Every structure is written in structure tokens, then in C-alpha cells.
Amino acid sequence: MEVFRDIDSLGNYLSAHRCQGRSTGLVPTMGALHQGHLSLLSNALEENDIVICSVYVNPTQFNNAEDLENYPRQEAEDLRILEQNGCHAVFVPDDEIMYVEDPVIRIGFGDMEGIMEGEFRPGHFNGVAMVVAKLLNAVNPDRAYFGQKDLQQFLLIERMVKDLGFRTKLRCIPIYREETGLAMSSRNLRLSQEEKNRAVNIYKMLSRSAKMLESGERWEEVHKEGINFLRENGLEPEYFEAVSAQTLARQTNVFDGNRVALCVAAYVGKIRLIDNLILGGSL
Ligand code: AMP
């Protein structure tokens, strides 16, 4: 496996492969890799000749300095995991490479970021869009892989790719969960066992809510019960929304023909976790 720390050497490697007619897939990550990331990697390996993973904790998408500082970092371990799982190349830039200067442009998504992560993490999606655009420019992959775990992120990136005319095709990979139902996340590394036990109630709540909606319960009731369920189980919900899995518009009548996603963010102690469930399956 090749490891690149600057854009030029990565570019040379990629053009050599492109000259041979090989297709390329990109898996952007912030490291502290787990099975969820590996599920993206294995999909990328199936569909492309050459797969590049990026491992970069992007400072501009953190709206909380403490969260950035405490974000788990384990580069040597990540490189070992990627090599073991058949990744061809890794891009591990540092801040000076990714941000030669502080960007003056801002990327905004209008109503699509007026709710959920965009509402509670101001500036987050500007940072995400900025780094994804930089990565797409650096790698120019045929395909790029993202997780349904960050559904709003995927839909905004999809929109950015359309609006800015990137040629890369995007893939959204279903959420990989622990046996308990807890969605895998690098932030889970920061949970104690007791907090992990509490955190499983996030997915329990989503599943219960889906069942209630499917049996005809009104969203207002489902929402109230969901919030109560989380609180009763020692979690502090930040939002619980039913949105279109295409436009992210809030849905009140969930069975009007749109794909509906139930999305939640909740604190377990100091750690903020997100999860979602699309009624009727994945994207
Ligand atoms: P991160 O390193 O958390 O920025 O995640 C990198 C990519 O992996 C993003 O596209 C995430 O949506 C995706 N991802 C994170 N956790 C999971 C999971 N449990 N299942 C599937 N994809 C995931």
C-alpha cells in the first residue's frame, strides 16, 4: 500500500494508473477506522481497480474546539487496518497541505442545511463541503464512497457534486451497526461501557418509531414518545426529525409517497451521537 502526504505525489501515482485505463475509487475518512469505514472500502474495492482512502481530521468542519481536540487519532493503526484490508493507497495530508491559506469562499446549502446537523453545528457543512471538494479535486476519482450514517452530509455532497459539475459518481453505503444495533462511529471509542449500554437506545428508539409510524401512528405522537424514550434511558436528545430522504424537507405525513428518514442526534454524557433509519430500507 502506498502512503501519500502531498497532492503532487498522489497525482503522479493516479495519472500512472489512469494511463493504464484503471478506474479509481475514493473513500474519505477522518480515521479511527472501524467496520463502518471498512464497509465503504470493500464496496469501493469491488467497483474500482484502484482504491484511495483519505485519513484527515478536517478542522473546518468542527464547530467545537474541544470536540476537535478530543477526536480520536491513531494514524499508525489506521494504516495497518487499511493495508490489511486491501486498500491500494492512502492520502494522509496535514493542515498545511489541505489549507495553504484560510479559504475566503463559503459553501452554503440553503434550506437543506437549515435543520439537523446544519442547525445545531453552524458552519459544519461549509467545512465538510470544502474538504470534500478539495479531495475530489486532488483525486478526481471515478467514484466516491460515503455512509448513510451521515445522511444529511451525503445528500448535501450529492447536491454540491451536481451544482459544481464534479464528474465523480457518488455511492451511499448502508449503516454498519454493532450487534446491539449501535451505529459504528469513531466517537464510540470515547464511550465507557456504561455509556455504550445507554447509547443502544438510540437505535431502539428509531426502530420503535418506525414500527409506530408503519402502524399508522401520527408523527407528533411518535416524536413525543421518541424524545421521552431517550430521556428515560439517560440520553439527552438534540433533535429527532422525519425528513425526506431526497430533499431533507420535514415530513409530517410520512406516507405521502416520499422516502422518509428518521434522523436523531443525542448526547450520551459528553459525547454526541447521530443515527438514522430510512423507512422501507436504505437509499
Ligand atoms: P468519518 O471518519 O466519521 O468522517 O466517516 C467517514 C465515512 O464513513 C463517512 O462517509 C461516514 O458516513 C462513513 N461511516 C461512518 N460510520 C459509518 C457506519 N457505521 N456505517 C457506514 N458508514 C459509516
How does this model look, in words?
With 283 residues, the chain is an alpha/beta fold. Helices cover 41% and strands 19% of the residues. It has ten helices and nine strands. Strands 1-4-3-2-5-6 form a six-stranded parallel beta sheet, sandwiched between helices. Helix 7 (124-139) packs across helix 8 and helix 9 packs antiparallel against helix 10. The chain is globular and about 55 Å long. The mean pLDDT is 96. Residues 29-30, 36-37, 39-40, 146-147, 149-150, 173, 175-176, 183-186 line the site of adenosine monophosphate.
Q: Specify the oligomeric state.
A: single chain
Count the E strands: 9
Output the radius of gyration: 19 Å
| Major sheet details | 6 strands, parallel
Order of helices and strands: EHEHEHHEHHHEHEHHEEE
Strand order of the largest sheet: 1-4-3-2-5-6
Distance between the termini: 32 Å
Helix content: 40-55%
Spans of at least 5 consecutive residues whose pLDDT stays below 50 are none
Overall pLDDT metric: 96
Structural class: alpha/beta
Instruction: State the shape.
Output: globular
Strand content: 15-25%
Ligands, ions, cofactors? adenosine monophosphate
How many helices? 10
Main attributes of the structure:
283 residues, alpha/beta, 6-stranded parallel β-sheet, 3-stranded antiparallel β-sheet, 10 helices, binds adenosine monophosphate
Condensed summary:
41% of the residues lie in helices and 19% in strands. It contains 10 helices and 9 strands.
List the helices and strands and how they pair.
Blueprint: E1 2-4, H1 7-19, E2 24-29, H2 35-47, E3 50-55, H3 65-70, H4 75-84, E4 89-91, H5 95-98, H6 116-120, H7 124-139, E5 143-147, H8 151-164, E6 169-173, H9 193-214, H10 219-232, E7 236-244, E8 260-268, E9 271-278
Parallel strand pairs: 1-4, 2-3, 2-5, 3-4, 5-6
Antiparallel strand pairs: 7-8, 8-9
